[in-house]
Amino acid sequence: MNRYLDLSEEVRKAIEDKKPIVALESTIISHGMPYPQNVETALKVEEIIREHGAVPATIGIIGGRLKAGLTSEEIDYMGRAKNIAKVSRRDIPYLVAHKRDGATTVASTMIIASMAGIRVFATGGVGGVHRGAEKTMDISADLEELAMTEVAVVCAGAKSILDLGLTLEYLETKGVPVLGYQTEELPAFYTRKSGFAVDYKADTPEEIADILRTKWDLGLKGGALIANPIPEEYSMDADLIARVIEDAVKEAEALGIKGKDTTPFLLAKIKEITGGESLESNIQLVYNNARLAAKIAVSL
Questions:
Q1: Is 253 noted as a catalytic residue in this protein?
Q2: Can you list the residues of the chain whose pLDDT is less than 70?
Q3: pLDDT score at 261
Q4: Catalytic residue chosen out of the listed positions 46, 145, 159, 295
Q5: Cα separation of 33 and 20, whole Å?
Q6: Contacts of 36 by beta carbon, 8 Å cutoff, 6+ apart
Q7: Which of 23, 57, 72, 91 has the fewest CB neighbours in a 10 Å radius?
């Protein structure tokens, strides 16, 4: 076990007893929504995973220690504390060396999960290739991590603030399989449709687990993206979301907002314009992904 990594008692026991475990990120707690809704959502996601037969391992960095399995008190701390860094692969050494706190993104959650031997991770959506990346080279580290790290990421696709076509092209180049759960089309986070096809449709958690097991048994490195559409009743109007995003992207360009500041700005604009409906959709799709991830982990 890595000397910088701490396991919660629950996660340690689950590893010893070979129980199924699902990793969870902490960016949604520290940067995704206001307190106390952030903490309530995080604890509810853990509850859902337990209800479906797996052990949750919420991941974060506290005082320079990598944590696989935050306690409820630590989750509350992450939800209340101000100025917690948003952490990707490049940030981990600095924060650990300086004994700082950090909320993990998809990439850094995958890294810490892999250190702990956890193979399944539930999140909201993954990062991808940003619009205009042919000029800016703005490509999320999440995609590179999926190419390197043997963790399956269950998500509601990628947000349509990204260039979804180029995101899929990048994943293909890196050899990352994109599996659609009961769908042939990549979901676009708030909506079930994007117009882009996934690589393969898989109809059951058992089928997904079998594909993952086969991939890793073959010695093929890297993870897989499991695209799980938002439940129909919480799916938002695709045309409305498209218009909101177009307007928000233009505003971001006009204000000179670039890089890692782009996504928080665009999501805040979407929430503002949709009157909070997007936040409720966000929460429900995370719950939905937690359910599927637990079933996959049990099958694995």
A1: no
A2: 259-260
A3: 76
A4: 159
A5: 28
A6: 79
A7: 72
